[in-house]
Design a protein that fits this description.
This protein is of the alpha+beta class. The protein is built from 9 helices and 13 strands.
Length: about 280
């Protein structure tokens, strides 16, 4: 009997643990408003069967396996950042999987999946638009996630990426770490990679291209800007390297503030394109 993957990380554990100090990370839980020290297992980022819907009464983990392929290349890239290995070439196939691992982080949060499910449950017109003939909204939400990720990867297939390292001020990370500006008519994507490194990608027809830039003290404002994006995007949790950093931002993520942001969130429903991974 096949054993499916039950515990799905919305952000890969290998990424979250980059924020660890002595195998511990500091977590701000936006639901309970508590700050506590947690292990690098990052169980707070796990949702059971998040990408593993029931199909014909059987759990299907094809999407979890698909995402894992990108996560493995992303993990290797994080090791390169840690080693400051900026010269090793990357094969095109590996680059494609790396961008899958990176860009998927803009669309795969538990919050996003649950919001799509809730909207499908109450919006009959949307169900008709998406051509749903069954009430398996979890399956439909995961298929929507597949479509969004595939289209985002396609958009950035010839992009110019820049890895910025050695920031002096620490970056934050949240349950929705990657910002896809193309969802709001911008041409970029950005994501914190470690407390001291971030990646920025810009749409282009001249790529794919990957450059490395070492930050300096003048980039402190850039860190503040990235952290502002991270705080604005967060819906479930934020991780930092110190408790003090989380204490200093707690007033920005009160329940009232999160509720306001949720009321303004734009759900994106991407119709089937006939390409890429699909459930049978």
């Amino acid at each position: 009997m096949k054993i499916v993957k039950k515990n799905n990380h919305e952000v890969p554990k290998t990424m979250i643990k980059r924020w660890a100090v002595k195998n511990k990370i500091w977590l701000l839980d936006l639901n309970s408003q508590t700050i506590e020290e947690r292990s690098v297992e990052a169980t707070f980022a796990i949702e059971e069967y998040l990408y593993v819907p029931l199909i014909n009464e059987v759990r299907n983990d094809d999407v979890e396996n698909w995402l894992q392929g990108g996560e493995e290349k992303l993990a290797r890239f994080l090791k390169r950042i840690a080693k400051k290995d900026i010269h090793s070439p990357m094969k095109r196939a590996d680059f494609n999987l790396f961008t899958l691992g990176l860009l998927s982080l803009a669309h795969r949060s538990g919050y996003t999946v649950s919001m799509v499910i809730k909207e499908l449950e109450v919006n009959e017109e949307l169900r008709k638009t998406m051509g749903l003939v069954e009430s398996n909204y979890h399956k439909a939400a995961v298929e929507n996630l597949i479509n969004l990720i595939n289209i985002t990867v396609q958009k950035f297939s010839t992009a110019k990426f820049k890895v910025m390292t050695n920031f002096q001020k620490p970056l934050l990370i949240s349950d929705r770490p990657c910002i896809d500006g193309t969802m709001n008519d911008y041409n970029f994507i950005s994501c914190p990679m470690t407390p001291a490194a971030a990646i920025y990608g810009e749409l282009s027809i001249d790529g794919p291209m990957l450059n490395w830039v070492e930050a300096n003290l003048a980039n402190n404002q850039l860190v503040d800007n990235i952290n502002e994006f991270t705080i604005a995007q967060a819906r479930s949790w934020i991780v930092a390297t110190t408790r003090n950093q989380l204490e200093s931002i707690r007033h920005l993520v009160t329940p009232e503030e999160i509720k306001k942001r949720i009321s303004k969130d734009k759900l994106v429903f991407q119709p089937m394109t006939g390409e890429g991974l699909r459930f049978k």
